[in-house]
């Protein structure tokens, strides 16, 4: 069959007006051209769509059936066009978002909630991963943007700071340091530590180890866990102490105590991290939204300082 959307629109107009002249005026075409288009459509379908007389035009039962289908086609095409335009502009789409423990315990929930309220047609697909895994997924195109421990030096990427947090020591409630209002980092030199693995928590370790070395020791890590929940669970068991951040310590369970470290002024940064040129409509809007919350954007080749 060789007919297109134009023939379908012509047919719908005639079916709704039941008058060729009015249908032609509605469509802005000449009446003879409209009549020829309907005749062509009937030949292609091999059915009679209208019964014509000098006084009136009546639609046939076959025509009524065809009309229902045609309206569905036109509505579907209209929806497809509108959806395509919305995706192109960023008003509709989806974002695959990675996040770390610190991100989800800190500012990220508030940011995502506010963005979702502003852009309800953009589907957010957040997924927890450590920083090193997020970077791999970003390289392989499996994530659109990651909220990671930064800053990170990597060509071809951009980043935007989201939050900066103080480090705190977390101990079990019967630990000798549990009653202290604050400690110095050097007081942990002979403690057993619980932390994430050096492979998975590489970026966090790039903060932790220089801080400890500056205080004259290397942390003795005796137990490892995948995430902060596991770390805190092992600390609660009395297996050691740990150093995490404010956001995580704000949600610790009973049996644990968070102690400020008075001589550590450095803060752990969480950054939004994405590939240069990867923006589409939805990403453009999300990046713009993030920058409105912290305009101090910096390139991804900024070196780390301690």
Describe the fold and architecture.
- This is Transcriptional regulator, LysR family.
- Belongs to the LysR transcriptional regulatory family.
- Helices cover 42% and strands 24% of the residues.
- With 306 residues, it is α/β, with parallel strands linked by helices.
- It contains 11 helices and 12 strands.
- Helix 1 (5-17) crosses helix 2.
- The longest helix has 29 residues, at 61-89.
- It has 3 domains: 5-89, Arc Repressor Mutant, subunit A; 94-162 and 274-299, Periplasmic binding protein-like II (D-Maltodextrin-Binding Protein, domain 2); 163-267, Periplasmic binding protein-like II (D-Maltodextrin-Binding Protein, domain 2).
- The radius of gyration is 32 Å and the shape is rod-shaped.
- Strands 3, 4, 5, 6, 9, 10, 11 and 12 form an 8-stranded mixed sheet that branches. Strands 1-2 form a two-stranded antiparallel sheet. A two-stranded parallel ribbon has the order 7-8.
């Amino acid at each position: 069959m060789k007919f297109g959307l134009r023939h379908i629109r012509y047919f719908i107009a005639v079916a709704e007006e039941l008058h060729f002249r009015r249908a032609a005026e509605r469509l802005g075409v000449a009446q003879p051209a409209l009549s020829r288009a309907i005749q062509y459509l009937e030949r292609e379908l091999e059915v009679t769509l209208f019964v014509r007389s000098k006084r009136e035009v009546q639609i046939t039962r076959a025509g009524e059936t065809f009309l229902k289908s045609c309206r569905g086609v036109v509505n579907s095409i209209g929806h497809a066009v509108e959806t395509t335009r919305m995706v192109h502009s960023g008003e509709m789409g989806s974002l695959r978002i990675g996040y770390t423990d610190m991100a989800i315990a800190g500012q990220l929930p508030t940011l995502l909630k506010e963005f979702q309220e502003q852009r309800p047609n953009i589907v957010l697909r957040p997924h927890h991963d450590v920083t090193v895994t997020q970077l791999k997924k970003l390289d392989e195109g499996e994530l659109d943007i990651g909220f990671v421990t930064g800053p990170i030096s990597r060509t071809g990427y951009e980043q935007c700071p989201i939050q900066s947090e103080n480090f705190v020591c977390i101990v079990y409630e019967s630990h000798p340091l549990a009653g202290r209002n604050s400690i110095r980092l050097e007081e942990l030199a002979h403690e057993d530590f619980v932390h994430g693995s050096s492979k998975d928590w590489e970026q966090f370790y790039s903060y932790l180890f220089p801080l400890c070395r500056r205080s004259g020791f290397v942390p003795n890590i005796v137990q490892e866990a995948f995430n902060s929940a596991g770390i805190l669970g092992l600390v609660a068991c009395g297996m050691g102490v740990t150093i995490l951040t404010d956001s995580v310590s704000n949600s610790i369970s009973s049996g644990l105590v968070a102690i400020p470290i008075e001589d550590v002024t450095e803060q752990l940064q969480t950054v939004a991290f994405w590939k240069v040129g990867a923006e589409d409509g939805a990403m453009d809007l999300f990046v713009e939204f993030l920058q409105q919350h912290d305009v101090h954007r910096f390139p991804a080749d900024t070196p780390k300082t301690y």
